[in-house]
Amino acid sequence: MYFEIVSEITSVQIITAGNSIREIARLRKIYGEGRWRKLKGFALIRLPKGAVCKAEIHWYEAHGIGKKEFKIKRLL
């Protein structure tokens, strides 16, 4: 699902890190080695039809690589 983040991500929490990430091998293969973490937070997003709403977002992040693969977990 396509969406655009229109505000800062707040209440950021680490869900898991390192080898406990289920998809760690794929992340390292695509984006490279790094200290990978899976995080969650809340932000305002814009959906494809223009609606703006608050959502819980999950993503992967590694130092030196950045934030990758954002996904909407639930709309609030």
Walkthrough of the structure:
- The protein is mainly beta and about 80 residues long.
- The protein has one domain (about 5-75).
- The chain has one helix and five strands.
- It has one helix at about 25-30; strands at about 5, 10-15, 35-45, 50-60, 65-75.
- Strands 1, 2, 3, 4 and 5 form a five-stranded antiparallel β-sheet that branches.
- The radius of gyration is 13 Å and the shape is elongated.
Distance between the termini: 16 Å
In which range does the helix fraction lie? 10-25%
User: Would you identify the regions where 5 or more consecutive residues have pLDDT less than 50?
Assistant: none
Shape: elongated
Number of strands: 5
Radius of gyration: 13 Å
What's the SSE pattern? Answer: EEHEEE
Helix/strand/pairing category: mainly beta
- What does the average pLDDT come to? 95
The largest sheet, given as strand count, sense and whether it forms a barrel, is: 5 strands, antiparallel
Count of the domains: 1
What is the beta-strand fraction? over 45%
Number of helices: 1
Oligomer kind: single chain
Descriptors:
5 strands; 76 residues; five-stranded antiparallel beta sheet; mainly beta
